[in-house]
Sequence to fold (373 residues):
Amino acid sequence: MRFGKKKTDYKYFWSISILAITIVIGLWLVNWLVLNKYPNEVRGTHGDMFGAVNAIFSGFAFAGIIISLYLQRIDLKNQHQQLELNREEIKNTNKEFKIQNDTLRIQQFENQYYKMIDLHRANITDVKVPYLEVLESSSRSSAKSTITSNTQRRELTGKKVFVDMAKELEICLKYSLVILKSKNQKYKDSDIFHFAYKIFFWGINSEFINSELISILDQKKVIELLRRKQNDYKKDSSKPHEKGLKIRYIPFQGHESKLAHYYRHLFHTVRYVVDIEKSGLIDYYQARQYLRILRSQLSNAEQLMLYYNYICSFGCEWDKNGKRGNMYFTDYRMIHNIPVGRVKFVDSPRKHFLKFIEWCCSENDPLFEWGDY
Fold:
């Protein structure tokens, strides 16, 4: 298109130029032939008769300037059009580069993200708690039969550990509330939860079990009661020592070595996806889809323990209890599958996140799989 237009702009150029040159040369030849016939003294007089020719030449010169300006205008117009076309090509090229760059960044993000999920799976398999399983064996003789008991050392591994961990933590919460609420009503529930979780996380023999908000005497009462419960498990771990609760391993020995890295990596993985969303590479709904894949790796017991970790202040940065303003449980539904009916001794997730449920949730997008009310 631009070449056709350029040809149209210049289609009279050569015709006009040749005509102008022909006229100028013709007038000069006429002038020379006429004046050449006269003597020198007469030429001056007759030459004045051709002053008009000089005026014509000056006019042609002026006309040439006008033509030059016109041609220059056409050139500038064509240059402007060419620049516009170049700018559009550069713009399209930049768009293609951005699309390619975003595609590459998404590939890099996904590679890193799925590696982090693989690490999460590895962290799960590394969660192991040894326990003694009681085996019943019978020996028969001609006179009588006898039944003897022996034990076999085994390991509770992976997702199964979280089932027993939840029971152990609930025992810590139960007796901390029983003792501290009956003795001193001024203690806040949140402070009691935090103290109980310390016992669960560090173990009753750890020096890290302390609270500036609970008296040392009351702390010791809780620890001594749990120590007696622990001794009962040591004597006979084959039966439940709490009504309806059977823990296969000896409780209250601490789980810091098993859970600290697990929770740090899980938190970092969720934050990584949210940061990618904030960078603009993916949108909110895509971030939800990616985190749904991670959440599908968490059993119900893991999500229950994740909520306990949060509500007892150890993992407060997961959502509104923290100071960073994260909304990983609410906006990103990281405990969507939590069995809300199994939460004991602490605020129900439905109650704790009631305002968010009322403002932001719907039947098509509830906060919890089991219902928000």
